[in-house]
Amino acid sequence: MPPDVRSPSLPFVNAAGLDRATLVSSEAAERGRAARQLVPRSAHADWSPAPDRPDPIAVLRAQAASRLPELIPIRYARMLISPFTFYRGGAAIMAADLAATPDSGIVVQACGDAHISNFGGFAAQDRRMLFGPNDFDETLPGPWEWDVKRMAASVEIAGRDVALRPARRASLVTECVREYREAMREFARRSHLDVWYDRLNASELVDRFGGRLGGRGRILFTKPLRKGRRKTSLRAVEKLTERVDGRLRFRNVPPLLVRLTDLVDPEDARRDIDIVNAAVDQYARSLDEDRRYLFATYEFLDMARKVVGVGSVGTRAWVLLFAGRGGRDPLVLQMKEAQASVLEPYLGESVFENHGERVVRGQRLSQAALDVFLGWQRSVGLDGRERDFYVRQLWDWKASIDLSQMTYGGLHAYARACGWSLARSHARSGDRLAIAAYLGGGPSFDRAIARFSAAYADQNDRDHRRLAEAVAAGEVTALSGV
After folding, report:
1. 142 to each of 27, 249, 320, how far by Cα in Å?
2. Are strands 140-143 and 19-20 parallel, antiparallel or unpaired?
3. Residue 415, in any domain of the structure
4. H or E, element range at 392
5. pTM for this structure?
6. Residue 129: CA count within 13 A, CB half-sphere
7. Which domain, by its residues, includes 386?
8. In this predicted model, which residue has the larger pLDDT, 278 or 14?
9. Residues 80 and 160 in one domain
């Protein structure tokens, strides 16, 4: 990272530890153009593994050391399904690889894991569904190129997953990055408030980006977004709970969903209730006063451990059941463990002592709308150790699209929407004028990232095979069927 580009362009530090972008357009543009001299856009095309590149299995094992050992075989099984699911779980592997690649020295609040399955629909407070990045577990101030490369490589890998030809995959990646570049150039021409207020309504997604979708394709593309509106706490209660002796509680579906009472010694019940109450109280203090008032209208009912995602499997993720208005009006929150970002070994530690706060603060900078219950806490776990968590609603119109079922036209629309959304996120937190000037008006950067993505997808294929070999040889254990 060229320090003579990074330092003068971003001289102030805000409360999130992210350097603040300058307001002087000519100076910002000049910094972006100067960065091209130090790091040409064509330099981003190169990828080859370093001679001392860590064994990917060693990287995954290092992560597993701080996770629940009984759940790690589920993580390996999910990563083993396909090269794309491996990529989803391999953020730490790619972070080490990206640290060795060139960047312009311009900092944004990086998502840290911007693969395209981490984009989707979510509810705004005005009850409109928006589209954009919705997973910030790894967020940290860092090079904007790292997010772009992780996003673009995931487009290439998703294209391979549905057996698209190389030329079509390259077209998808190029279009995705072009959308990022053109959106950033547009944001550079707009005011700070315009950028901050801008958002992508899910209802507009097909009209803006779905030009290559036919009539049936438009229907299939929008169906998951419509379905997402039904994913609420009421739906979570229907799927995850049961009523016993007139009282609502979570089901037991081990190992994927296990009630707290089944994880602890009955003799420690009083201690565990105190731990839960302390955790809930500390979380409430992270909320603004109006949200704290709203949360106080709910009564805690039950808690269970829930296995979620691919890369997160093995971290401690809980669901908490609440009810209001005399036992009705349910609310289901997710309390998800926040460990150190996979970017921290290469960018330095977060300025926040609590990694739950790191996630929430990064999300507030980056996302167009926030869950009213988004907060964080630190509590003593069942093993007696303090751990950091962030909290949000489990389901609040959360919508995702099954990329493995997409056609070329569907992936084309989706990838373009992801590119635009990532640019909007970066434009809020970074020096959008300098980034836009660095990118320029031509396709040089787009083509370079397409070449990088194809080369890195080859590496991901090799890493996926390495996992398969490790499982076959008994180096690691994969628990299938979950």
Report:
1. 21, 42, 33
2. unpaired
3. yes
4. strand 386-393
5. 0.92
6. 24
7. 233-393
8. 278
9. yes
